[in-house]
C-alpha cells in the first residue's frame, strides 16, 4: 500500500511539476515563439479533452496572425516528418503528456 | 416510264390518258423522211398532159445559211491575195501546203488573212523571216503580284519567384519521451538555481570587498583605470603646461647679475584633500622612477596624534596622489628600497614599523611589527633599508625614542627583529632617591649609515648627542659628539666625502663634521629651528636646510662658507617647513610643511654649480663603489679641504647641461 501511495504521490508531483510548457524544438523568432507557445497553452487548456478542437483553434488563430497555411498536430503519441517553411516550426510538450507540433507550409 | 416517274408534274394541256393507253407501247422509227413533207404533191406534166404525182420529195430543210470568207489558196482569188500579201503567203503556202498540195490538193486548207494574223505568234517563231508583227494588246494577258512585310518575331518569357525556404523536421512524440524531456529540464533548472546562488554569494563577497577598497583607495574601476589614468595625466599636462616648461627649460638668467646668489623657482604644489590637518613628516624619492616620491603624513604635536597617511605623488600628476594608504597611527618616517622600488618601509608614531608593497592591492601593509615581535615602545624616528643579508632577505633598520636601534628582516610572512644597539646616556649619573645606578636611556631621533663602510653608522639623540656606532658592537659607541644643545633632527653622511657628515637641530644650528674630529668643522646658525638638512646629490659641497619659519637655505661651501647662497621663504607665514629632499637626477627639491603641502622648487643655475676638476687621480682613490652610480658627471666633484682655514679659490664650472 505504501508503494502505491508513493506512486500516487509521485504521479501528483509529476503532474504538478510537469505542467509547464516545454519547447522541444523551434526555429521561430523570439517574439513569435512566445506568442505561439501561449496560444498553444491556451488552446490545450481550453479544450483539455478534445485535441481536435484545440488543434483547430490553434490553426485558425495562427492563420489569422501569421498568414496561411498552418498545420497543427496535437496528440499523446505520434511520429511525423514534415516539410515546413523555415522559421515557422514549433514542437513542444505540454501538461506532461501532450505533444504539440505547429508548422507552416503553404 | 418517264411519265410514271414524273407524273406529278403535268402540263396543263397534257392529254388525259388511261392506264391502258399509258402502258401502250408506241414504237417510233426514225427515218430520214421529213414527216412534215407533203406526200401528195402532183405536178402538171405537159408531156402526158396529166397531173402526175411526184415521188421524190425534197427532204432537206435549211435552217441557217452563211456565206464563208475562206478562199482556197489554189484558186485564182487565193493566188491573187497571196501575191498581194507577198512572201508570207508564199512561204505559208510552201510550208503548209506541200503535203496537201501533192496528196490532197482538193482538201488543202486555205488560210485566209485573219487566220494568219491570229496565229502570228506561233508562226513567227517558226518562220525564218525577220518581219515583226505588232503585238496586240490582250485584255486577258495580265499577271498578279504580291509582297509581304517581315512580321515581328515572337518570344516567350516567364519568371518564378523563389519559394520560401523550407526544411524538414521529424520527430516522434511518445509518452516516455515527453517524460524524459520534462525530467531533464527540471534537473537543468535546479542546477541553474544552484549556480545563481553561488554567483550571488560571490557577488556579495565582491561587493563587500569593493566597499572596503572604496573606503581606503577610491573606487576600484579596474577596466577603465588605465585609460582614465592616462587621460588624467594628459589633462594635468595641459593644465600645468607652463610649469612643465619651467621645470624642463627655464634657467634664471638673472643669476649672472646676482653674483654668487641663487634663487628657487616654485613649481608644482602637491596636496591631498583628505590629508587635511596632517603635516608632512617624511619625504623620499623613488630611486628607480625619479618622478615618483613618497610622503609620510602625521603630526609632531604630542597632543594631536591620530591617524596618519602614506601617499605617493608623481610629478606627472600633481593634482592627485598615485597611491594612498591610510594608517591608524601617524607616519613619522619612511624609506623606499633602492633596488626594489615597490618596497616601502614606514615607521609610525606608535612604535610600529611596517613594509608596504606597492605592487599588491589592498590598504594593509605586507609586513607589520607587533608587540610580540619587538616593536618599539616609542615613536620610530627613522627607518633605512640595508643591503640584503646573506640569505638574500630584505632588511632595514629603525631608530626610536625608546633608545633601540633595531634591524628588521623580512622572512616569508613575518618581520624578524634584532636589537643592534641600546642607546644610553653615557656619563649621566642617575640621581634616584635610592641612588641606584641605572643606565638612562637615550632617545634616538635620527641615524644614517656610512656610504662605504658598511658597519659604520651615526645616531642622533634627543639629548643633542651624536653617536658613531658600529653594527658589530652593541654595547659601546665608537665615538660620541657633543653636537647640539637640543634634539638632533637629522644626521647625514656626505655623498662623496667619506669622512664628512652634517647634522641639524632645533637649536637653530646646522653643523658639518669630520667623523675623526670631535668638534664641528662648520657651524651655521640659521636663527630659527632647523627642520631638515640634506646634501645635494650633484655636488659634495652643496646642502640645503629648511627652517620652521618657512625658509629654504641653500649653501655651497665651495663658494661661500659663511652665508647661504639662497635664503628664500617659500610658504606663508606661520607655516613650518618640516622636511626637504633633493631629486636624485633633476635639479629640483621638494619641501614639506606642517599643513600637508609639498612644494617642488627648481634650483637656479648658481645653486647647482659643480666644482672644477682639481686632482682627479688622488680623488678617485677616495671614491668607492658607491660613487659609481654617479660617476658620469660627478666624478670631478671635490670636497674642498675644510680643515684649513680657507677653501681653495679655484674657478667654477657651469653645469654642463
TrEMBL record, chain A:
The record, for Pfam families, names: Dynein_light (PF01221)
Q: Which SMART domains match?
A: Dynein_light (SM01375)
Q: Which BP terms in the Gene Ontology apply to this protein?
A: microtubule-based process
Q: Which UniProt keywords apply?
A: Cell projection, Cilium, Cytoplasm, Cytoskeleton, Dynein, Microtubule, Motor protein
Subcellular location field: Cytoplasm, Cytoskeleton, Cilium axoneme
Region forming the signal peptide? none
CDD domains from the UniProt entry: DLC-like_DNAL4 (cd21453)
Q: Cellular component GO terms, alphabetically?
A: axoneme; dynein complex; microtubule
The task this protein performs is described as:
Force generating protein of respiratory cilia. Produces force towards the minus ends of microtubules. Dynein has ATPase activity.
| Assembly information from the UniProt record | Consists of at least two heavy chains and a number of intermediate and light chains.
Which family is this protein grouped under?
Belongs to the dynein light chain family.
This one is known as Dynein light chain
Species of the source: Menidia menidia
From TrEMBL, chain B:
Enumerate the residue ranges of region (Disordered): 146-171
Q: Name one Pfam family in it.
A: WD40
Placement of WD repeats on the sequence: 481-514
Arranged from A to Z, the UniProt key words for this protein are: Cell projection, Cytoplasm, Cytoskeleton, Dynein, Microtubule, Motor protein, Repeat, WD repeat
The record's annotation in SMART domains points to: WD40
Question: Where found, per UniProt?
Answer: Cytoplasm, Cytoskeleton, Cilium axoneme
**Cellular component per GO?**
microtubule; outer dynein arm
Its annotated function is as follows:
Part of the dynein complex of respiratory cilia.
Instruction: Please give the family membership noted in the entry.
Output: Belongs to the dynein intermediate chain family.
Record protein name field? Dynein axonemal intermediate chain 1
Lineage of the source organism? Eukaryota, Metazoa, Chordata, Craniata, Vertebrata
Amino acid at each position: 500500500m505504501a508503494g502505491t501511495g508513493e506512486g500516487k504521490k509521485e504521479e501528483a508531483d509529476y503532474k504538478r511539476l510537469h505542467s509547464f510548457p516545454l519547447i522541444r524544438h523551434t526555429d521561430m523568432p523570439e517574439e513569435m515563439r512566445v506568442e505561439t507557445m501561449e496560444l498553444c497553452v491556451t488552446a490545450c487548456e481550453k479544450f483539455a479533452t478534445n485535441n481536435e478542437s484545440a488543434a483547430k483553434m490553434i490553426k485558425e488563430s495562427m492563420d489569422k496572425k501569421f498568414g496561411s497555411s498552418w498545420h497543427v498536430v496535437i496528440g499523446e503519441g505520434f511520429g511525423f516528418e514534415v516539410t515546413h517553411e523555415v522559421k515557422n516550426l514549433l514542437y513542444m510538450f505540454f501538461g506532461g503528456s501532450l505533444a504539440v507540433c505547429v508548422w507552416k507550409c503553404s | 416510264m418517264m411519265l410514271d416517274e414524273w407524273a406529278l408534274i403535268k402540263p396543263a394541256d397534257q392529254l388525259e390518258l388511261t392506264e391502258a393507253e399509258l402502258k401502250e407501247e408506241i414504237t417510233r422509227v426514225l427515218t430520214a423522211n421529213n414527216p412534215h413533207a407533203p406526200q401528195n404533191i402532183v405536178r402538171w406534166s405537159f408531156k402526158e398532159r396529166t397531173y402526175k404525182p411526184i415521188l421524190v420529195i425534197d427532204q432537206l430543210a435549211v435552217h441557217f445559211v452563211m456565206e464563208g470568207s475562206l478562199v482556197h489558196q489554189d484558186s485564182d482569188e487565193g493566188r491573187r491575195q497571196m501575191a498581194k500579201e507577198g512572201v508570207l503567203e508564199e512561204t505559208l503556202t510552201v510550208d503548209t501546203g506541200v503535203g496537201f498540195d501533192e496528196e490532197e490538193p482538193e482538201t488543202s486548207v486555205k488560210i485566209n488573212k485573219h487566220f494568219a494574223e491570229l496565229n502570228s505568234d506561233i508562226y513567227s517563231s517558226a518562220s525564218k523571216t525577220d518581219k515583226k508583227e505588232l503585238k496586240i494588246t490582250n485584255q486577258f494577258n495580265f499577271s498578279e503580284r504580291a509582297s509581304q512585310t517581315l512580321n515581328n518575331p515572337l518570344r516567350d518569357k516567364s519568371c518564378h519567384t523563389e519559394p520560401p525556404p523550407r526544411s524538414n523536421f521529424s520527430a516522434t512524440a511518445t509518452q516516455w519521451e515527453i517524460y524524459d524531456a520534462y525530467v531533464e529540464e527540471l534537473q537543468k533548472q535546479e542546477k541553474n538555481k544552484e549556480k545563481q546562488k553561488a554567483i550571488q554569494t560571490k557577488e556579495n563577497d565582491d561587493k563587500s570587498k569593493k566597499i572596503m577598497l572604496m573606503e581606503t583607495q577610491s573606487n576600484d574601476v579596474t577596466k577603465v583605470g588605465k585609460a582614465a589614468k592616462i587621460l588624467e595625466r594628459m589633462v594635468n599636462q595641459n593644465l600645468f603646461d607652463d610649469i612643465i616648461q619651467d621645470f624642463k627649460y627655464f634657467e634664471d638668467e638673472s643669476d649672472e647679475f646676482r653674483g654668487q646668489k641663487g634663487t628657487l623657482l616654485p613649481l608644482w604644489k602637491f596636496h591631498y584633500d583628505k590629508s587635511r590637518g596632517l603635516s608632512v613628516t617624511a619625504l623620499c624619492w623613488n630611486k628607480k622612477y625619479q618622478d615618483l616620491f613618497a610622503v609620510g603624513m602625521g603630526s609632531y604635536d604630542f597632543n594631536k596624534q591620530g591617524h596618519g597617511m602614506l601617499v605617493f605623488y608623481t610629478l606627472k600628476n600633481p593634482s592627485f596622489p598615485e597611491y594612498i594608504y591610510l594608517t591608524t597611527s601617524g607616519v613619522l618616517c619612511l624609506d623606499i628600497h633602492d633596488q626594489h622600488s615597490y618596497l616601502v618601509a614606514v615607521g609610525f608614531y606608535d612604535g610600529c614599523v611596517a613594509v608596504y608593497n606597492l605592487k599588491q592591492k589592498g590598504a594593509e601593509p605586507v609586513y607589520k611589527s607587533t608587540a610580540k615581535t619587538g616593536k618599539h615602545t616609542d615613536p620610530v624616528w627613522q627607518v633605512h633599508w640595508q643591503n640584503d643579508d646573506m640569505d638574500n632577505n630584505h632588511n632595514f633598520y629603525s631608530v626610536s625614542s625608546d633608545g633601540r636601534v633595531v634591524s628588521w628582516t623580512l622572512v616569508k610572512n613575518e618581520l624578524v627583529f634584532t636589537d643592534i644597539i641600546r642607546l644610553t646616556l653615557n656619563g649621566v649619573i642617575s640621581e634616584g632617591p635610592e641612588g641606584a645606578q641605572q643606565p638612562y636611556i637615550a632617545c634616538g631621533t635620527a641615524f644614517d649609515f656610512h656610504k662605504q663602510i658598511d658597519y659604520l653608522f651615526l645616531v642622533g639623540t634627543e639629548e643633542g648627542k651624536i653617536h658613531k656606532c658600529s653594527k658589530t658592537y652593541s654595547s659601546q659607541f665608537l665615538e660620541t659628539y657633543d653636537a647640539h644643545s637640543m634634539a638632533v633632527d637629522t644626521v647625514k653622511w656626505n655623498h662623496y666625502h667619506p669622512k664628512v657628515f652634517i647634522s641639524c637641530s632645533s637649536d637653530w644650528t646646522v653643523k658639518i663634521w669630520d667623523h675623526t674630529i670631535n668638534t664641528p668643522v662648520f657651524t651655521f646658525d640659521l636663527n630659527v629651528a632647523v627642520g631638515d638638512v640634506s646634501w645635494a646629490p650633484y655636488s659634495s659641497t652643496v646642502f640645503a636646510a629648511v627652517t620652521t619659519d618657512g625658509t629654504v637655505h641653500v649653501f655651497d661651501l665651495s663658494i661661500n662658507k659663511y652665508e647661504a647662497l639662497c635664503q628664500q621663504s617659500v610658504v606663508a607665514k606661520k607655516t613650518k617647513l618640516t622636511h626637504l629632499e633633493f631629486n636624485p637626477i633633476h635639479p629640483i627639491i621638494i619641501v614639506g610643511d606642517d599643513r600637508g603641502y609639498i612644494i617642488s622648487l627648481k634650483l637656479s643655475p648658481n645653486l647647482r654649480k659643480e666644482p672644477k676638476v682639481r686632482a682627479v687621480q688622488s680623488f678617485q682613490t677616495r671614491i668607492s663603489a658607491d660613487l659609481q652610480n654617479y660617476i658620469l658627471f660627478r666624478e670631478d666633484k671635490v670636497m674642498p679641504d675644510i680643515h684649513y682655514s680657507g677653501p681653495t679659490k679655484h674657478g667654477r664650472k657651469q653645469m654642463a647641461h
